[in-house]
Amino acid sequence: DQQVKQNSPSLSVQEGRISILNCDYTNSMFDYFLWYKKYPAEGPTFLISISSIKDKNEDGRFTVFLNKSAKHLSLHIVPSQPGDSAVYFCAASVGSGRKLIWGLGTSLAVNP
Amino acid sequence: DVKVTQSSRYLVKRTGEKVFLECVQDMDHENMFWYRQDPGLGLRLIYFSYDVKMKEKGDIPEGYSVSREKKERFSLILESASTNQTSMYLCASSSRGEGYNEQFFGPGTRLTVL
After folding, report:
1. Separation CA B73–CA A87 (nearest Å)
2. Which of B27, B15, B30 has the alpha carbon at shortest distance from A99?
3. What are the C-alpha distances in Å from A2 to residues A7, A34, A101, B41?
4. Nearest chain B residue to A48, by CA
5. Could you identify which of A19, A57, B73, B86 might form a hypothetical disulfide with A50, taking C-beta atoms 3.0 to 4.6 angstroms apart as the criterion?
6. Higher-confidence residue: B1 or A3?
7. DSSP SS3 for B92
8. B97 near A CB under 8 A
9. Is B97 in Cβ contact with A102 (below 8 Å)?
10. Contact of A97 with B98, CB cutoff 8 Å
11. Does residue B100 carry a pLDDT above 70?
């Protein structure tokens, strides 16, 4: 039973356009949400996070939006660059400093 | 610069061998985690530890054990390696502090069991 779902296995976007990656969750107790990026043959690297008391968090080209009523979050990358091509994982936790529950990932391809 | 290191990037073992994967972090983190990543299955948690000498089972602990004798080191043990344990193994660590639940990952170990 997947508590964190990334329903799109892959996404293709043109360079310079917006990439929107989506994530849905079922556990209303989740209070921290994170996005990670992973290149092949490397460990995931942290991108951006949001706590449940906020609905938006921004860091440069990356913005995460949280809609608690819909149990949905999204990661926006603007503008998209070819170096953004990677697998993006959404993760959530109940409480801080605890284990994370992971989605299956979305593979983003940014085409020049 | 924070760092999580794993003992090997690539490892080839034979069925039935005992395999040790070592992970060391230099961030004084309380929490450490072992995952495996397989195509289409995302990151699956094998074992984790919130403190020295403590361990908890993750989602897929069968066939694995762990050891945490020191805060900075977390070892994953495959008691008798099997071909279905061929995978990418990822170690991570995190702080237990309020709000700080970001996990830092090592580069991964690609294990092939023949």
Report:
1. 28
2. B30
3. 11, 16, 9, 11
4. B102
5. A57
6. A3
7. strand
8. yes
9. no
10. yes
11. no
Are the beta carbons of A44 and B33 separated by less than 8 Å? no
In chain B, which residues have their Cβ closer than 8 Å to the Cβ of A51? 99
B52: Cβ contacts below 8 Å, ≥ 6 apart: B68, B69, B70, B71
Which chain B residue has its CA at the smallest distance from A35's CA? B102
Residue B100 CB neighbour total at 10 angstroms: 13
Q: Which residues of A touch B2 (CB under 8 A)?
A: none
Nearest Cβ partner for B100 among A41, A96, A103: A96
pLDDT digits (tens, 9 = 90+) for A3-49: 999 999 999 999 999 999 999 999 999 999 999 999 988 999 999 99
DSSP class of B102:
P
